[in-house]
């Protein structure tokens, strides 16, 4: 694949996408890398980048989320490590330790979940884990960024001496403070700190009374700051020890820097890996925000974008709670070039930019907002001519620029090219410019290029109908309201609705009629025919949609009736079997009853037994001999029939119970009698009866003999009037 020109990326607003992507990175290096992103020229690397993004996106909704990849850049430290005898700062060591620990954490995670993230696991295997560096740094520098006392035996000894000397300074200073404070030589503040040393705040008049070194005075001169003589000798000793401490720390850091110097290349790889992870994470977040995915990649030079959204428009409209209309478009060897026509503000340019921007994003390793059944391919180059490209610096008009652009198209256009041209042929005389545009389009077609153009020129619409692998398309426009529907329809050209839109915007009809007379009659009729066809298509689309909905409803109703019919048929068969069985049992019972009646009269057992045997043999002769398996199946079937019957009876009973409850609820309750003093009453949920002693504001005091209680009147029912 060839590199796509920067002008093409600007025409498609790709830099705006990169700015939004950069804003989703966590690190400064990641932000820089995101802004520098450009389409890949190596297909293998491109597929790997897309795979990384898709795997990272899946982790955002998974329980096994990828660990935090944040890090502080170590670019300065890497430069210093290249120079001999240089020493890193303490903060630099902490940054290096942090980046090593982050790498170790990621390698451990991807090794554990390599089945979920195979591509990211393979990417993590490109760097080697290093536990030695963080361990070595940790023995010398603590988590606060200070060199540890145990970094070396010498440093430990020096710091122990420093603590001892500071203790002596404190004691001697306290002695001098108490002495001179008792003599009233000190000011009210008593002491201060000058050049990191404790000093006495001596009144200026007593400066010669206090032995020590003058370290300064106040602005007014009323206070002189003196370091006491007793502490002075210890201060000199402390200075020497602090100098030794700095020397030892410098020696330790020099040794640690020399230890890290051989690891400069692996450390550089660590930073590159985490920067790439930061950009990949930003791509995944960006994709999730606009519902993007990794579409199917084909090698047949087929571009099928189903329900494709313009990313920038989609995110912008979502923030404003506005609707974004998706587009479906297909480019394939049998239909390589699409000529989109229709009125202005109908969505032609947005459709064009959507195709181009999604292609550029995909070839830069970004996922795109399309339907999961979309299928895409890669193009060696993407050529665009979009917008008004006047060049003031080069003194070029729009048309001159477009001609230069077309010349570049002619030089590089081939079968692996996707070209996108907005308002093809404009900028010059309509007839001459249209003829030249027609010639350009024929050349692009002959070279087997893929492309989408937008135009108002009738000759280009006619050419699209003539060429076998080129098709017309239009942006649907409601003929009644003259409002765009933002739907792309393949197969026929669109009208510009020039006069209709003018009339809608208040232009006098007489003026429009005058303009129509100035135009060739055939052209007006041609445009009117296209407009009429477009209106009819819109009307047919609505009718077809309505008929499709009605057909779907009819199918669902037919299916429901068929199921109901089968159910009723099965029930009738079951009920018929039950009826036949019951009739047979009644007939058999009658025979047995007749035999019993005969025995009752004659009391002859032999005749009864022979009659019963005859009845049984007659019934058995009617029975078909069944296997044990068939008999068991028959019993199971009958049991099921009985269960279904019981269920239906239960449902009917429940419905009757519900209906009864509703009737009961609908029956108006009898009005409660008005209670008076002396009436005998009881609580609605109780049995004890008492008399009302007092009534006040919906409350009643009821006397039960042994006690009285106050209750709401609504909770009482009348037993007996007073």
How would you portray this structure in words?
The protein has 722 residues and is of the alpha/beta class. 55% of the residues lie in helices and 15% in strands. It has 21 helices and 19 strands. Strands 10-11-12-8-13-14 form a 6-stranded mixed β-sheet, with helices on both faces. Helix 6 (90-112) packs antiparallel against helix 7 and helix 19 (521-602) packs antiparallel against helix 20. The longest helix is centred in the C-terminal third of the chain and has 82 residues, at 521-602. The protein is extended and about 155 Å long.
Tags for this entry?
single chain, 722 residues, alpha/beta, six-stranded mixed beta sheet, five-stranded antiparallel beta sheet, 21 helices, 19 strands, extended
Short description:
The protein is of the alpha/beta class and 722 residues long. The protein contains 21 helices and 19 strands. A hairpin with a 5-residue loop joins strand 15 (680-683) and strand 16.
Number of continuous helical runs: 21
The number of E-state strands comes to 19
State the helicity in percent bands: 40-55%
Measure the end-to-end span: 107 Å
Low-confidence stretches: 390-395
Kindly estimate the percentage of residues that lie in beta strands according to DSSP. Answer: 5-15%
Query: Which structural class do the helices and strands define?
Result: alpha/beta
**How are strands sequenced across the largest beta sheet?**
10-11-12-8-13-14
Instruction: Based on Cα principal axes, name the global outline.
Output: extended
Q: Tell me about the largest β-sheet.
A: 6 strands, mixed
Q: Taking Cα atoms only, what radius of gyration do you get, to the nearest Å?
A: 48 Å
Instruction: Write down the overall mean pLDDT.
Output: 82
């Amino acid at each position: 694949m060839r590199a796509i020109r920067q002008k093409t990326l600007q025409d498609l607003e790709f830099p705006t996408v990169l700015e939004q992507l950069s804003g989703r990175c966590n690190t400064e290096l990641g932000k820089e890398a995101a802004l520098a992103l450009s389409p890949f020229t190596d297909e293998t690397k491109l597929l790997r980048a897309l795979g990384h993004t898709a795997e990272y996106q899946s982790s955002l909704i998974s329980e096994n989320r990828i660990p935090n990849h944040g890090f502080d850049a170590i670019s300065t430290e890497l430069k210093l490590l290249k120079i001999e005898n240089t020493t890193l700062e303490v903060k630099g060591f902490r940054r290096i330790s942090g980046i090593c620990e982050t790498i170790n954490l990621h390698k451990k995670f991807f090794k554990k979940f390599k089945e979920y993230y195979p591509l990211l696991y393979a990417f993590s295997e490109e760097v080697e884990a290093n536990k030695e560096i963080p361990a070595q740094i940790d023995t010398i520098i603590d988590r606060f960024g200070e060199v540890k006392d145990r970094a070396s035996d010498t440093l430990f000894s020096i710091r122990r001496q420093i603590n001892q000397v500071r203790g002596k300074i404190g004691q001697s200073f306290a002695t001098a403070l108490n002495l001179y404070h008792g003599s009233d030589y000190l000011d009210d503040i008593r002491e201060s700190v000058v050049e990191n040393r404790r000093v006495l705040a001596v009144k200026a008049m007593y400066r010669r009374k206090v032995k020590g070194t003058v370290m300064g005075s106040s602005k007014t001169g009323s206070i002189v700051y003196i370091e006491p003589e007793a502490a002075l000798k210890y201060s000199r000793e402390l200075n020497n020890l602090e100098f030794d401490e700095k020397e030892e720390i410098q020696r330790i850091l020099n040794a640690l820097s020399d230890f890290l110097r051989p690891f400069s290349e692996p450390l550089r790889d660590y930073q590159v890996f985490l920067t790439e992870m930061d950009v990949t994470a930003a791509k995944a977040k960006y994709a999730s925000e606009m519902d993007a995915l990794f579409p199917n990649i084909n090698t047949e030079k087929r571009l099928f974008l189903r329900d494709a959204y313009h990313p920038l428009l989609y995110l912008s409209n979502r923030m404003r709670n506005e609707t974004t209309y998706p587009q479906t478009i297909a480019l394939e060897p049998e239909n390589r070039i699409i000529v989109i026509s229709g009125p202005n503000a109908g969505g032609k340019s947005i459709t064009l930019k959507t195709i181009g921007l999604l292609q550029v994003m995909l070839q830069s390793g970004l996922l795109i907002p399309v339907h999961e059944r979309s299928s895409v391919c890669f193009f060696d180059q993407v050529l665009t001519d979009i917008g008004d490209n006047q060049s003031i610096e080069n003194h070029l008009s729009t048309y001159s620029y477009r001609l230069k652009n077309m010349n570049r198209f002619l030089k590089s256009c081939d079968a692996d090219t996707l070209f996108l041209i907005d308002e093809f042929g404009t900028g010059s005389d309509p007839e001459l410019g249209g003829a030249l545009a027609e010639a350009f389009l024929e050349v692009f077609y002959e070279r087997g290029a893929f492309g989408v153009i937008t135009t108002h020129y009738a000759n280009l619409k006619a050419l699209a109908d003539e060429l076998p692998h080129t098709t017309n398309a239009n942006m649907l426009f409601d003929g009644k309201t003259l409002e765009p529907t933002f739907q792309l329809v393949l197969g026929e050209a669109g009208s510009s609705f020039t006069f209709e839109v003018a009339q809608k915007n208040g232009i006098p009809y007489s003026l429009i009629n005058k303009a129509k007379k100035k135009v060739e009659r055939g052209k007006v009729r041609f445009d009117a025919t296209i407009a009429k066809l477009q209106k009819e298509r819109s009307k047919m689309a609505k009718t077809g949609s309505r008929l499709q909905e009605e057909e779907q409803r009819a199918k669902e109703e037919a299916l429901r009736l068929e199921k109901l019919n089968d159910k009723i048929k099965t029930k009738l068969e079951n009920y018929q079997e039950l009826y036949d069985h019951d009739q047979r049992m009644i007939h058999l019972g009658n025979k047995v009853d007749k035999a019993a009646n005969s025995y009752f009269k004659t009391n002859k057992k032999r005749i009864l037994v022979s009659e019963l045997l005859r009845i049984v043999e007659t019934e058995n002769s009617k029975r078909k001999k069944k296997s044990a398996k068939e008999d068991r199946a028959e019993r199971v079937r009958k049991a099921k029939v009985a269960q279904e019957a019981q269920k239906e009876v239960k449902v009917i009973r429940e419905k009757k119970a519900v209906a009864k409850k509703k009737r009961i609820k609908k029956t108006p309750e009898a009005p409660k009698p008005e209670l008076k003093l002396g009436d005998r009453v009881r609580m609605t949920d109780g049995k004890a009866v008492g008399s009302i002693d007092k009534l006040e504001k919906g409350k009643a005091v009821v006397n039960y003999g042994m006690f009285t209680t106050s209750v709401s009147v609504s909770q009482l029912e009348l037993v007996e009037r007073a």
